[in-house]
Amino acid sequence: MDRYRTLILLTGLWLLAFGAQGAPRVVLGDGDIELTDFAIGYFVDQSQALSYPQVRSQTFTETGNRTTLGTNARVTWYRVILDNPGPQPRTVSVHLPHAYHVQEVALYEEQGGRLVRDEHLALDEAADSPLMYRGVVVYSLTVPAGASTTLYVRSHSYSHQWFALEILDQDHSRRALMGSKHDIALMVGMMLALVFYNCLLYFATSKKENIYYSLYLISGLVWIALSYGLVASLFNAYGATVFQLNMSLITMPIFLLLFMMSIFETRRLYPTEHRCLQTLLVLLLATLAYSVFDISGALKPASSLAALMMVVTFSVSISLYRKGNPLVKFFLVGHTFFVVFNGIAVLFYKGLIAPSYWSSHGVGIGIVLEALTLAFIISYRIKVLEDIRASQDELKKQAATDPLTRLYNRRYFHSEADFLLELAKSRAEPLSVLVVDIDHFKQVNDSHGHHVGDQVIVRLAQVLRQFSRSNDLVARFGGEEFVMLLPNADRAEAEICSERIRAATESLAVAVDAGTSLRFTISIGIAEVAVGQESIESAIKRADRALYRAKRSGRNRVCVDLPAPA
Fold first, then answer.
1. Which Pfam families match (predicted)?
2. How many structural domains does the chain have?
């Protein structure tokens, strides 16, 4: 007797551990029906050819109503028994929310051991089927009072077998159908905004990484919209043609690798890491080529390929970080999100972990988080480049300007003056040059010191800047000597400008110390450039002659050098 009891106990434990024939029973109570977490049975049809009568005698294994069985269960039968212990019949809607991603669905309704109804739905023809609503198969059935109904569902997937079944009353069914896919729409909307933003950046910078990033975003949003039912919900599109869009799952890591190669400049700076990324890129390109002919076969190793890609890209990122790349630390943050959430998703698609929102949506969440980080990297890189450019512009400006007056120096004047001369020649416009010198400047330095002399020079520079036009070229040639080039100004206009400058300078007062100020004057020589006949250097020499004539004539005056008669 003891041995008999022990045998019964062991048999019970075995059944608990490995499942028993039959299917778990779902009891429909008297109140609202919203069953989204319960047990069902499944049987994998490896032959993919068993009929409903043949399947009824098979052993079903218990699983949850949301399950994933990997790539080796393309044709799987699910069975659930609905019990109605109440005095009234109960009508419910059975939802298959992931039906949009399978190849075929068949449902068999059995009461009292007799088949009372069956429905077959090929997804290529699902757009016009009354069973399909926004990517969800909705099958209504009525369980008689005090009776049971057994429902068999045959799910024929393209590659990965992930399945969900919900049992709802009419009110909850309507709410579920109207309120789905909002989170997916939000993900896709965010990525569309990033695509638009990145396109603007590309037009501003013309960087290759912007192209790769945009293509990565587009691939990601297509896959998210397709895999989580947004395409089915919005466009009522299903079947093999739509399933072919799953190629985006392969193009997405391809563009991510190209993005890494471009933004980190691996070809030029990190040849070893570049070769690792190239090898993975070749493997992905081969898979992409294969997917053109057999997308289901190409997706079968997709989870393993995704795992390999995460290992390689993460390892390369760590290597670049150790070698001091300034951008890779930000990439590592985003890629860590990508690796963690995609790792969870890989386990889900292989059927190794239980379904949950985080596991079933892991790829989408990982893509969005990494996409946001990559957008930050691009923006940060633009900021770094702008800082470098601003620094270079400042260095150029410092090289071109006089440190005391912030006017242009002699070297910049000559390079720019030649351009203005050519411009005046092409436009047939006049061009004049002024040479300005401070009168008795040596006495200012000897009597009051060089710091006062510097103040005098700075004040004169302010006057020259004040009375010059935006297109005039003003430069300090050294010491107390300044030169002005006046485009589109003849000798008479140059003389008027010079008199204004001379008068304004004469009225200046430079503070020497408390209660003491210094006044100073300037002399100016003018020469109108013989455009097309002489150089700027020649015109400056003539203006210099006029300046010395002004000095000899008593200073604080303007003199003009008249060109020799032809």
1. 7TMR-DISM_7TM, 7TMR-DISMED2, GGDEF
2. 3
The pair phi, psi for residue 50, each rounded to 5°, is -70, 145
Give the integer Cα–Cα distance in Å for 253 and 247: 11
Pairing of strands 90-96, 166-168: antiparallel
Whether the CB-CB separation of 512 and 499 falls below 8 Å is answered with no
- List b or e across 326-344, with b for residues whose CB sees 16 or more CB atoms inside 10 angstroms: ebbeebbebbbbbbebbeb
pLDDT digits (tens, 9 = 90+) for 336-363: 887 788 778 777 776 677 777 777 777 7
How far, in Å, CA of 540 to CA of 440, rounded?
22
Determine, yes or no, domain membership for 4.
Answer: no
Instruction: Say how far apart CA 467 and CA 24 lie, in whole Å.
Output: 95
Of 178, 202, 228, which residue constitutes the final position of a domain? Answer: 178
Q: What is the DSSP letter of 408?
A: B
Q: How confident is the model at residue 565 (pLDDT cuts 50, 70, 90)?
A: low
Q: Could you tell me if residue 404 is inside a domain?
A: no
Whole-number Å distance between alpha carbons of 27 and 284: 49
Residue among 556, 555, 553 at smallest CA distance from 499: 556
Q: How confident is the model at residue 327 (pLDDT cuts 50, 70, 90)?
A: confident
CB 435 within 8 Å of CB 368: no
Domain that holds residue 524: 410-561
Looking at the whole model, is its pTM more than 0.70? no
Could you tell me the CATH number of the domain that includes residue 223?
1.20.1070.10
Which amino acid is it at 461?
A
Q: In this structure, what are the phi and psi dihedrals at residue 25, rounded to the nearest 5 degrees?
A: -105, 140
Contacts within 8 Å (CB) and 24+ apart, 530-539? 530/563, 531/421, 531/424, 531/425, 531/428, 531/429, 531/430, 531/431, 532/425, 535/421, 536/414, 536/417, 536/418, 536/421, 536/433, 536/485, 537/414, 539/433
At residue 177, what are phi and psi to the nearest 5 degrees? -70, -35
Query: Is the same domain home to 118 and 252?
Result: no
Taking the C-alpha atoms of residue 503 and residue 508, their distance in angstroms, rounded to an integer, is 9
Written as six digits, the tokens of 190 are 């965010």
Judge whether 510 lies within some domain: yes
The pLDDT-based confidence of 299 (bands split at 50, 70, 90) is confident
- Whether 231 and 366 map to the same domain: the answer is yes
| Residue 166 included in any domain | yes
E strand or H helix that includes residue 358 = helix 357-360
Q: Do 215 and 151 share a domain, yes or no?
A: no
Together in a domain, 297 and 234: yes
- Inter-CA distances, 52 with 44, 47, 57, 274, Å: 13, 13, 9, 54
Give the whole-angstrom CA distance, residue 560 versus residue 491: 8
Q: Which of the listed residues 178, 193, 228 is the one where a domain comes to its end?
A: 178
